[in-house]
Write a structure and sequence with these properties.
about 120 residues; mainly alpha; about 55% helix
Length: about 120
């Protein structure tokens, strides 16, 4: 799964629509939150949305139901992508111990805590 996430993140990092270079996809949570809060920077916002959506989509398509039970059940959420990102930013401020962790890992932690599956 980590291999798939890494490949997806590399693809997302190389697909920028502006002259600015997108940051490396192996960014920390602190750097990722910094990008997501840079609302005046279109490239940063595009990266923020694409990266976060990519992490979630990769989780959905690589999880094997028998070998890795679901821990994120957000399919019925009515929040917009921006609302999810805003909530993730608030969550990450409340969980500073993950500032230097991989942004993709922290996004999945947030989703698992916020949208846990019933067991």
């Amino acid at each position: 799964m980590k291999k798939h996430i890494a490949l997806l993140c590399l693809a997302l990092a190389s697909a920028t629509t502006s002259a600015q270079q997108a940051p490396a996809a192996t960014t920390t949570t602190e750097k990722f939150v910094g990008l997501c809060t840079s609302t005046a920077d279109a490239a940063a916002q595009n990266f923020c949305h694409g990266y976060s959506q990519g992490v979630y989509e990769t989780y959905l398509v690589t999880r094997h139901p028998q070998k890795a039970p679901a821990f994120v059940c957000a399919q019925t959420s009515t929040l917009t992508r921006q609302q999810h990102i805003d909530n993730f930013i608030k969550w990450s401020v409340a969980h500073p111990q993950f500032k230097q962790a991989s942004a993709s890992d922290t996004i999945l932690r947030y989703l698992g805590e916020t949208f846990p599956c019933k067991r």
